[in-house]
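stuck on this one:
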Amino acid sequence: MIRQAAIFTLLASAAAAQDAEPRNQLVEGYMACLSGGNQVDLTEAMLTSLYWTRNDDGEEGLIYFYPGVGDDTIVYMAEGSFCHVESTSVDSSTASEILAAALGGEDGAPFVYSKDGMGCTRLDFDTGVSATVTSAGNDPTCGSDTDSGVRFEATPIE
């Protein structure tokens, strides 16, 4: 129910229209990753409706999505495994604030803060998805003053 409401809110929101502002693109990526449930078809439908394009030419097993404007933001995912939103211009602390405001909010998915195995900030949503905030790149750290990455994964049932 929350997932459907989030999708309709995102698609109907004039503020979410594709533009070159990396912060707005992060919101689009975060909403698509959380709502898509690590399913490529659902995530792709949301992103392409917002003028993102799909590209399968990268690393094998990964699907990439690029915004229609600008090159600071990227979404990539592995079917059924994870969905990752990365920025080369928004720092990790700001990305965490954008994430919490965009997805938590008054009408959003409730979450609690926790830490992952490396000690990085993680938001655990009551939908069974977690979002871990790190730096960008292949060897992420728990934070960066210049870039960010947020990985959405299904939370293991304990």
Summary: The radius of gyration is 14 Å.
